[in-house]
Amino acid sequence: MIERADQLVLDFVSRAADAAHGVLRQDHRLDFVKRLRARIESERAGSEDPKAVAKVLARFGDPAALVEREARRLSGASEVPQVQAEPEVRPAGKDTAVFPRVVDDVPPGVARSRREARAELAARAERGLPFAGLRRAAMARANPMATGGRDARTLVKAHPREVLAMGLLVLAALLVPFGLPAVAIFQLPAIVWAVGAATALTSDSWSFKDRMTGLGAPIFGYAVGGVVIAALRAESAGGFNAFVEQFFAVSGVMFMIFTGLGVVWLAYRLWDVS
User: What burial letters (b/e) apply to 41-78, b meaning 16+ CB within 10 Å?
Assistant: First the structure.
């Protein structure tokens, strides 16, 4: 994992160095690559997680654009931010030199706005495309930079409340076949589902429509699905008693199926909006 994180950095710096050929003088190119590597290491802050490193690299943008910016800086264009590097420091007792810290005079607010603008433009490019979030999830393992360093593990860390809510909903569905004793007048799966639903309703990561869709699916399956299936199965036997018997026989299964569908929808929307 450490080698892969380092390889992501080396590949990015190599692409920048290749783009600088024929654009920057050799001494300028070497200085640019050195300062770029130093800036990446500073932003990386010692992380060995490939996903986190990929996310850092994604913030730097296109290496060719960095080279173009450096060329404009060297040409003296006033609109290009000046980048200065502190002198290289070699800690006492260590043979490995520390990369110099690169100081960028771009105000923090401007830099943050630029990152947010790039993220918004990337999101707009995929908006309207079917299953864009699922495609990014599928690409995460093969190419962390394609997903901005996000995968299922980072999603869990970023949204613990939402993951807890989905886990409780799944647990409620799994408890249905066991026929556990009721607590007061409430069945245990219904209690667990209610806790999961309350947790989901307190989340700001899902829109109100998404929450209602995910939480309404098991209710729809239990009520409407149970009635339809029971009516079809009781049609030959006839009678209200046969209908009631069939309803209670199939409604639990329909609740489980539609709970699974609701959780899948919530998980998909959580990834897609993150």
Answer: bbebeeeebbbbbbbbbbeeeebeebbebbbebeeeee
Q: Which residues neighbour 152 within 8 Å (Cβ) at sequence distance 6 or greater?
A: 137, 140
pTM of the model: 0.50
Rounded Cα distance between 84 and 107, Å, is 14
- What pLDDT is recorded for position 103? 41
Q: What is the pLDDT of residues 30-77, one digit of tens each?
A: 999 989 988 898 888 888 888 888 888 888 888 888 888 888 888 875
